[in-house]
């Protein structure tokens, strides 16, 4: 069988710095675990613009469509702020998402015990937390037509349209149920079926897909406002949450803050299943290019490393290997190894990006 293939797009700012640590781990898998990835590397974002005059070259786009998974660092930086909208670094990422049709955005909120004090909530509420929010990413109120600012009589009116088709709901629901089967077989779907037509349809379709295709998964429904409250009150009651684009945007940011630093948070964006049965996929840390610390060896590589762990699990069917990576991160944190973003007010001496990567590799 062919080696699993991976396209690395390190991008701008701290992207290449954190990706260098992932590459060490990829190398380790080859020499120590006999798992060799066919890795290719290319440009995205500002660095691609500098070389090609576009934030994503057509050849790179074509490569992304062929590989088993794309791993992305970060794009953008102040030197690109004044570029024309059509060639902004972020457009490279948007094109990848759009052309790969990545409709399902997975944002885990996982709290490592050693960092539980970092949360804004009580330690017992977050310690051991491990949930995933699945956000619909390509439809809903951010895309629905009509949209715009119009004039009605003698005043202006701003309009967005919340719109979901049955098939758009069904495909993201499937993605959540598939995820649940790999985890703890439990999904909570969130909408506002009490006040929104799209919410009524959302609830119906999720229930139908469940009854027809995933009756083994435990499904519950919750209004998104109540869900937001429950997420802060007792997040461990959830396992997989599936919700629409708007609610997912809010809920996943809220959930992220349950766990601590931006430097810890991975994500996956998944599309339709490919010939091998695995979804099209792009993995990236939640954080951006962090221009304020770029080039200084201060960036925390854990978000990017955990994004690679997600790729092991969801694109390469290597869940046990993903656990090895996560356990190594857990151990290093328990040992007290901290990059600067993970230092509390009590202070201490932070390690560099590459020291953190080396510690995880050793663990
Ligand atoms: P973008 O628009 O690309 O999302 P942003 O300015 O919203 O960028 P980030 O680039 O993620 O957000 O940076 C936000 C803050 O978090 C910055 O102060 C940055 O230094 C810090 N930060 C982000 N990622 C990391 C990381 N991996 N390690 C340490 N600090 C980080
Ligand atoms: Mg941002």
Note down, in words, how this protein is organized.
- There is one protein chain.
- The chain is an alpha/beta fold and 363 residues long.
- Helices cover 40% and strands 22% of the residues.
- The chain has 12 helices and 12 strands.
- The strands form 2 sheets. The protein has a 10-stranded mixed beta sheet with strand order 2-1-3-12-11-4-5-10-8-9, sandwiched between helices.
- Helix 7 links the parallel strand 8 and strand 9.
- The two termini are 30 Å apart.
- The model has no long low-confidence stretch (mean pLDDT 95).
- It binds adenosine-5'-triphosphate and magnesium ion.
- Adenosine-5'-triphosphate binds next to loops.
- It is found in: Cytoplasm.
- One of its GO terms (molecular function) is 3-isopropylmalate dehydrogenase activity.
- Its cofactor is Mg(2+); Mn(2+).
- It catalyses: (2R,3S)-3-isopropylmalate + NAD(+) = 4-methyl-2-oxopentanoate + CO2 + NADH.
Write out the strand line-up for the largest beta sheet, numbering strands in chain order: 2-1-3-12-11-4-5-10-8-9
Shape: globular
- How much of the sequence is in beta strands? 15-25%
Enumerate the spans where pLDDT stays under 50 for 5 or more consecutive residues.
Answer: none
* Ligand roster: adenosine-5'-triphosphate, magnesium ion
The proportion of residues forming helix, as a percent range, comes to: 25-40%
- Taken in chain order, the helices and strands follow as EHEHHEHEHEEEHEHEHEHEEHHH
Question: Span from first to last CA?
Answer: 30 Å
In terms of structural class, how would the helical and strand content be classed?
alpha/beta
Count of individual beta strands? 12
Our Rg estimate from Cα atoms comes to 21 Å
Mean model confidence by pLDDT: 95
Largest sheet: 10 strands, mixed
Count helical runs.
Answer: 12
Cofactor: Mg(2+); Mn(2+)
Pfam families: Iso_dh (PF00180)
Catalytic activity: (2R,3S)-3-isopropylmalate + NAD(+) = 4-methyl-2-oxopentanoate + CO2 + NADH
Pathway: Amino-acid biosynthesis; L-leucine biosynthesis; L-leucine from 3-methyl-2-oxobutanoate: step 3/4
